[in-house]
Design brief:
Elements (H helix, E strand, L loop, with lengths): L14 H4 L2 H17 L6 H17 L3 H4 L7 H13 L4 E4 L2 E4 H27 L4 H8 L4 H30 L10 H28 L20 H7 L1 H16 L1
Helix pairs in contact: 2-6, 2-7, 2-11, 3-6, 3-11, 5-6, 7-8, 8-9
Amino acid sequence: MGAGAHPLYRHDDSVVHRAPAEVKIVCLLVFVLAVVATPREMFWPFAVYAAIVVVVWRLARIPLRWILPRMLIETPFLVLAVLLPFAEGGERVDVAGLQLSVTGLWAAWGIVIKGTLGVAAALTVAATTSTTELPMALSRLGMPAVVTSVLVLMIRYVDLLTGEASRMRMARLSRGDSPRALHQAGAIAKGIGALFLRSYERGERVYVAMLSRGFDGSAPDLAVIGAPPRAAASQWVVAMTPAVAAVAIATAAWVLR
């Protein structure tokens, strides 16, 4: 994995990639809040939100075949949404021979559409923001230095832990393990426990090494150490366009409701 990369990062040089990371984070937060605040009974705002996301994908040169498989991360929430029409009470309606709750159907629709748009927007930011930009951006947005330092360490060691988990899986397979067999669940659970203990012990060793090098519990301000200049006003105006449009759409939806 290259410097500054993470599994969700897509290397490119688009206008979205070049946008300051702190602006993209604020834009994402405002966009998601606007989507969540939109009445679920209104359908047209969500179609416009989806169009905004697709336009940003085109500007970032993110193909659908790359991002759609990564959106499967929301599958557990979709399963919950499918169960709601059967579990909720109140007024019921007949759909294809099934008695479904009206309240549950609206709740399922809200979870599916708002969750999908939120995941799509978050993946867009992740695909266009490297790991070297994220801590600096959070520091500039006022995040405590200790939190950004923890984030830096987490990003650094999550790749190591992923690699170690992959090697442990390969070791099990080479010894005749069948991950799909139910009787191997105990071995998999023991492997997860061993990985947790190794991670904990590695964290202690890293902390001791930091103390031996003079770490006193305070962290430096990452926004002033070799960082590029802050985002200009013109960059804020341009990059915040999707968020401003989302706020306008949510406001219109409430007015026309």
